Amino acid sequence: MKELELKYGCNPNQKPSKIYMAKGGELPIAVLNGRPGYINFLDAFNGWQLVSELKKATNLPAATSFKHVSPAGAAVGLPLSDTLAKIYWVDDLGELSPLACAYARARGADRMSSFGDFISLSDICDADTARLIKREVSDGVIAPGYTDEALEILKAKKNGNYNVIQIDPDYVPEPLEHKDVFGITFEQGRNELKIDDEFFADIVTDNKELTKQAKIDLAIAMITLKYTQSNSVCYVKDGQAIGIGAGQQSRIHCTRLAGTKADNWWLRQSLQVMNLPFVDGIRRADRDNAIDLYIGEDYMDVLADGAWENIFKEKPEVFTREEKREWLNKLENVSLGSDAFFPFGDNIERAHRSGVKYVAQPGGSVRDDNVIAACNKYGMVMSFTGLRLFHH
Predict the structure, then answer these.
(1) Does any domain span residue 391?
(2) Which of 19, 171, 184, 210 is the most exposed place for a label (fewest CB within 10 A)?
(3) Active-site residue, from 68, 134, 158, 391
(4) Range of the structural domain that residue 12 is part of
(5) Is-catalytic flag, 310?
(6) In Å, how far are 47, 206, 235, 303, 324 from 373, measured between CA atoms?
(7) Shared-domain flag, residues 112 and 152
(8) Same domain membership, residue 338 and residue 309
(9) Separation CA 212–CA 146 (nearest Å)
(10) Cβ neighbours for 117, distance < 8 A, ≥ 6 positions apart
(11) Are residues 72 and 131 in the same domain?
(12) pTM above 0.90, yes or no
């Protein structure tokens, strides 16, 4: 297949639309089910690059959950604790395969953002992963292959219209890439930067103890940022992104946004949230939305008389600001990556409140000394990578 006609482009009025190989070669994909659209393919191809690099960097199966050309979550296939299995709503599925664990983590870290995602998987999709995907609201999936059972499960999703794409894992793109904007063609070399242990060798803080897990987490952060719309920062803990801030004009706003997502991930593991008495039969999306409101500043939207009765069997107590802060103070050993330098120490101050211990960023700001001093104040380890990772 040399080209594939699409229903429309980014919006229904943008016609005609298609994907094709500029030099007339064969497309490296096959659509096994459904009819993926323009944005679906943008998410699929960016997500596939992300999980492929995560797999190479960690030697673990990887998954990402994409929305609007940025990842909502990304993770590698480490086993789930009982707590994580419960807050990701997969504790009823039994022991999951490593690939299914990767997607449960990628989807579960920020379920609000992942609603209606496009999934990318580094490995052949197995039945465990397909069963997990089938129960979530999702637009499609791309993987290097599917077991017969997995494909049968996925083809039954969305009344038979779920988008399933298979990509050739051996496909290597041209070294130069092109993009048309306003009728003008841009050309640049592909970002083939390899992110491994040596990427974090230049440690500029007093504390230089970068653990093995921190190196894995920082690699996940930076590879995730490589395919996230800039400005972007990424908080990671134990093999998964827990807070991604994408497309913000101000880096401190990006750090705050991603930090709030990381905080929410941790707050969901508190007893106050895990023991919320939801009414029987509540929809998954309604439950996720209720939790998001309950742990935020608009908690009365779900606790007010006339509202809570539709969500809970009994009215929960308010999760006070002091109680939340006490629980958040237990979050530790979080890694933080940034796609460009931190211009001020205020980013580090905000990161500290979300348990950040390890930081990787390019460096090169005129205020690097201020940023380093802020890290030293909290005993953080910070690496200067010397390389920016903007993605547009």
Answers:
(1) no
(2) 184
(3) 68
(4) 3-172
(5) no
(6) 36, 9, 20, 43, 28
(7) yes
(8) no
(9) 32
(10) 43, 65, 66, 67, 72, 107, 136, 138, 139
(11) yes
(12) yes
CA distance 264 to 241: 13
How does 167-176 read in b/e, with b if 16+ C-beta sit within 10 Å? beeeeeeeee
178 in active site: no
User: Other C-beta atoms within 10 Å of 10: how many?
Assistant: 12
275 is catalytic: no
- Tell me the H-state helices in 65-146: 82-87, 98-108, 111-114, 127-134
Statement: residue 198 has pLDDT above 90: no
| Spatial separation of the C-alpha atoms in residues 232 and 246, rounded to whole Å | 5
The model's confidence at residue 212, banded by pLDDT at 50, 70 and 90, is very high
Q: Single out the catalytic residue among 231, 347, 352, 357.
A: 231
- Total domains present in the chain: 3
User: Which CATH number characterizes residue 361's domain?
Assistant: 3.40.140.20
Tell whether the model's pLDDT for residue 92 goes beyond 90: yes
Q: Which of 40, 46, 67, 215 is catalytic?
A: 67
Give the domain CATH number at 297: 1.10.287
Tell me if residue 68 is catalytic.
Answer: yes
What pLDDT digit, counting tens, does each position of 276-320 carry? 999 999 999 999 999 999 999 999 999 999 999 999 999 999 999
